[in-house]
Each structure stands twice: as structure tokens, then as C-alpha cells.
Specification:
The chain is α/β, with parallel strands linked by helices. It is 40% helix and 17% strand. It has one domain: NAD(P)-binding Rossmann-like Domain (Rossmann fold).
């Protein structure tokens, strides 16, 4: 794993970034990179052990972080998570809205949209309401599925991910860049959650046809998120960036 340092992209040392789904995968990589870049991290996750592990890594490297255990489908827990985030020293300026159910989770389209889009909206709206004076930038994690291609997933997944991209564009305009809102659409990405699937021979065979010949590492997606959050991306607002190694543009 490569933990990049983005401290030269305009972040103010000691400001606070909220990262949801920080216990694993892309969220974990984002939390570690932003901490290395000088930010204090409010690490939100449903999994207590996983998020505590990430906070331990941040602190061992000399950074500041707080583990916040929350189910983002429960409004009261979102509000409590924001209250706990405010206990960190520094202005809360950045939100990485990343937590969401796995694509293999068996949900109806209505349930999936409610959980995936609804939780993102609830977290973002609280960010804007409670930190209107300091909120600078936010990112949302969508997917190439539903936005750039059709994949073999549960029915709800592409519908929800397309909805997340649409919601991002909407709030980017509605709030006039305070905060900026941008979206990443990862392709196949290796995380703890997906590692077993990528180890299968069937997936390995498909990856041989990929333009880069491999799936992404979580840190490669996280690096794009950290850039979008940063002041260096100050004129990017409402964009949807595929982080897929060119797979969705492959024609043969």
C-alpha cells in the first residue's frame, strides 16, 4: 500500500476531515493519506475493531484521529458522529462520503437506493447544516457500474450508484461550491472485502483483458479522492471521475 502525502496541495495542517467507511478499503486509504497530509481525521465506520485499527495506524505515524462507530442508516447516530467529530481540534472542512453496502448485498432496488443514496444525503446535509462556515469540499464514492457500464451485480447497485452521481451534481450546483462536491467512480478495486473474489481464476482471466492488466489498489482510488478534496482542485465541482484504468473505454 502506498500512503501518499498531499500536504503541498493547500490543506491547512490541523483541519479536520471526516471519512466514512474508514475502517476498510478505499476509506481506510483516504484516512491514512489525509492524516499523512497533516489533517486530523474523524474516522467513521460500523466496524469497531476495523476503525480502531486505522486510528492506531494514524497515531503510530504521529497523526491525530478519532474512531467513531456509527450506523449511517440511523439518523441519531449520524448526529452523534458529528458531535464526536467536533471534539477534534480544528475546523471541519472536508468530507469523504464513502461508506456503503457491498455490491453483493441482497437488497431490493428500493432498499438499496434508500440505504446507499439516503445515507450519503443524510451525512452530507448534516455537514452543510452544521459546518456551513467551514465546509470546503466533499467527495462521494459511486462506481463505474450504473455510470459508465453494465456489470454483473445486484440490481440495486447500479441504480444506487447512478443516483449518487446525480445527487453529487445536484448539490454541487445547489450549494455553489460551499462545499464543492465531486464524485469518483471506481472500477474493480482490491480491498479486504473483495480480495477473495479477485483471487478467483475467472476474475483473473477477465483482468488479462483489462487495459492495464490488473484491478486497482484501494490507495489508487483514494489518491484521486484526496486530490478532489484538496484546495488544489478548487475549480472542480460536480465532476464524476472514473478511476478504472481505462476499462470502460475499451472497445475490443
Amino acid at each position: 500500500m502506498t500512503i501518499y502525502d498531499f500536504s503541498q496541495l493547500g490543506f491547512r495542517p490541523g483541519d479536520v476531515a471526516v471519512v466514512t467507511g474508514a475502517g476498510n478499503g478505499i476509506g481506510r486509504s483516504v484516512a491514512l493519506m489525509l492524516a499523512k497530509s497533516g489533517l486530523n481525521i474523524a474516522a467513521w465506520d460500523m466496524e469497531k475493531d476495523a476503525v480502531n485499527e486505522v486510528v492506531g495506524e494514524v497515531e503510530d505515524a504521529g497523526g491525530t484521529a478519532r474512531a467513531i462507530v456509527a450506523d449511517l442508516n440511523v439518523p441519531a447516530q449520524i448526529q452523534e458522529a458529528w458531535a464526536q467529530s467536533r471534539s477534534l481540534v480544528g475546523s471541519i472542512r472536508y468530507l469523504c462520503n464513502n461508506a456503503g453496502p457491498a455490491s453483493t448485498t441482497p437488497l431490493s432496488v428500493a432498499e438499496g437506493a434508500s440505504i446507499a443514496i439516503g445515507s450519503y444525503a443524510a451525512v452530507f446535509e448534516s455537514f452543510v447544516e452544521q459546518h456551513a462556515e467551514t465546509a470546503e469540499s466533499s467527495t462521494f464514492t459511486a462506481s463505474v457500474a450504473g455510470n459508465f457500464m453494465v456489470g454483473d451485480t445486484q440490481d440495486w447497485y447500479p441504480a444506487a450508484k447512478a443516483g449518487i452521481a446525480g445527487y453529487t451534481r445536484h448539490v454541487a450546483v445547489k450549494f455553489k461550491g460551499r462545499p464543492r462536491a465531486n464524485c469518483v467512480a471506481p472500477g474493480g478495486t482490491i480491498t479486504r472485502r473483495t480480495a477473495a473474489a479477485f483471487a478467483s481464476e475467472a476474475v483473473k482471466e477477465r483482468l488479462r483483458q483489462h487495459p492495464l492488466g490488473r484491478a486497482a489498489d484501494a490507495d489508487e482510488v483514494a489518491a484521486v479522492i484526496c486530490f478532489l478534496l484538496s484546495p488544489a482542485a478548487s475549480y472542480l465541482n460536480g465532476v464524476l471521475i472514473p478511476v478504472d484504468g481505462g476499462s470502460t473505454w475499451k472497445t475490443s
